Amino acid sequence: MGSTASTLSKIPDVETLMQETGFTPAHMVRLYDRFKALDKERKGHLCPQDFGAIKELAENPIGDRIVGAFFSQGQETLDFHSFVRILAHFRPVDKDRPRDPNVPEPINSRSNKLKFAFQLYDQDKDGKISRAELLQVLRAMLEMQVTEEQLESIADRTIQEADLDRDEAISFDEFRKSLEKVNIDHKMSIRFLR
Amino acid sequence: MGPFFSPFDNLLCMLLGISFTVWFTLLLVFIIVPAVFGVSFGIRTLYMKTLLKVFEWATLRIERGAKEKNHHLYKPYTNGIIAKEPTSLEEEIKEIRRSGSNRDLDSSSAGSSEFEMSDIFYFCRRGVESIVDDEVTKRFTAEELESWNLLTRSNYNFQHISTRLTVLWGVGVVIRYCFLLPLRVTLAFTGVGLLVFFTTVIGFLPNGRMKNFLSEKVHLMCYRICERALTAIITYHHSENKPKNGGICVANHTSPIDVIILASDGCYAMVGQIHGGLMGVIQRSMVKACPHIWFERSEVKDRHLVAKRLNDHVQDKSKLPILIFPEGTCINNTSVMMFKKGSFEIGATVYPVAIKYDPRFGDAFWNSSKFGMVNYLLRMMSSWAIVCSVWYLPPMNRLEGEDAVQFANRVKAAIARQGGLVDLLWDGGLKRGKVKDTFKEEQQKLYSKILVGTQEDRSRS
After folding, report:
1. Tens of pLDDT, residues B207-235
2. N or C: which end of chain B has fewer CB within 10 A?
3. ipTM given for this complex
4. Interface contact flag, B157 A183, Cβ < 8 Å
5. Which of B99, B117, B443 lies closest to A181 in CB terms?
6. Is B185 exposed, middle or buried (0-12, 13-18, 19+ CB in 10 A)?
7. What domains appear along chain A, each with residue ranges and CATH number?
8. Nearest CA to CA, how far is B86 from chain A (Å)?
């Protein structure tokens, strides 16, 4: 026991980080401890192998895609700031936030949560989910359990339903439209305990 | 040349000599003699009670101080930092779809199970949850305490809260490092030295009852001295279930000290790899007095050889019960991990033992990736004390139609229940290695059942 102030002082730029992400000081301390626990070799940053040590993540069919989402374009290291910024996507939406057009959208807005999910599908980051990319995700989630034909038919049907401009791919807007009614906030949020 | 020694020097030498003698006499009378005979003066229990009162005061002081200064108290949670919902894959996906479905709900498949783009949310969230907090990685770091025990190493942010507290902490440091630590190191060397010496001497005797009797006494005595070297305050429960000859004793593993704790209350045949250096010397001399099972490094890989030697030992009823730690590695004493099935295949009676350390006095967990052995022992010897409880559980045998893995799990569950530890299915080997792909298949199977199940319905209708 002790006060959070001294741990917080170990984190560089913690004030801006808290403003940006909306995490409380208690959350920041917890996440910092978690970051250090994952960084077993005490390098000061994380690399993809550190995530490999998390058993439940390795069990997850799209585990490696999620890890990929943390490491932006070709980077091999993840510092604490980026770690927290990505996790901020999963904070529950602040319902009382005033809709101020001048303030940039918070990281955990509905739209940004959708963007995060979108990039799990769209691996080549061209802004569209192609048929091939959809098949890849399906394969990851189903592997040996389903035949290739079944996978292809599922993919075809999904594109048919969501693809409104008939370009054989799903853009972000089409993605968003097809998920209009889903309670994103609930499904893409993690409740942090005090 | 003038007088070499001034009267002051003389006085100094005399004082040193006297204090040394007093020191050693006290040591002998209060610690070594009781260790030899297995009695106790109760000094350690008194010490423990005093310490607890001091810790309580310290905790209250910190809380009060924090309230006065309006600081945010950092209270560690052992239950995790996020609220995980225990819903299953099926329930969640149905719920996601029900809320997002654009089709009519009463169409052919209510709660219809065909692939939806939103299915990925479930996996995504679960994945990120495990990044933030997962069951297994927690077990390999030291347990977090609810109150402070005046050791800086268990306090994440030591800050000046009050003068009295800091003074108390300072006094604690002086006591621990200047008084307790040298005392304990002396005892440790005495204990180990006596062990090596006596077991070598006994080794010269012919095999027989006399030798076994003496060997037992010597082992017990030396382990008790080592126990006192750590100021270990151990409570043994249910001693009527103590392991007997021809059996195998299994226990949960937190640190190398477990061996000392168990061996000061009974005689066991140890199993392990032969090391070099000091450990090797101790091992070699121990085996002269009574049969332990030491393996060469090359033999360890050969599972059949290991099993055969264990079996041979167990068949011989005159040999001591074997002591084995089936988890294979040190766990932080909040849970019990998967037991390796080797020792459960032999078919001997298994005597389970649960060991639970009280973390308030010192963290006994050996994090081998963080500390080496010597560093660890020094930390142990400069803590307040090692307080633990040992429960001897009733013997278990493999039942008809039960295979080694099921038997191992049954024993593990009994140990976890008794010690108040969490019973986990995960392999302790995961501390260092990666998860096998078979686990991923489980998730895939579950998910495909939801989808493919209705593909078949569709083709039927």
Report:
1. 888 888 888 888 888 888 888 888 888 88
2. N
3. 0.87
4. no
5. B99
6. middle
7. 12-89 (1.10.238.10), 108-193 (1.10.238.10)
8. 13
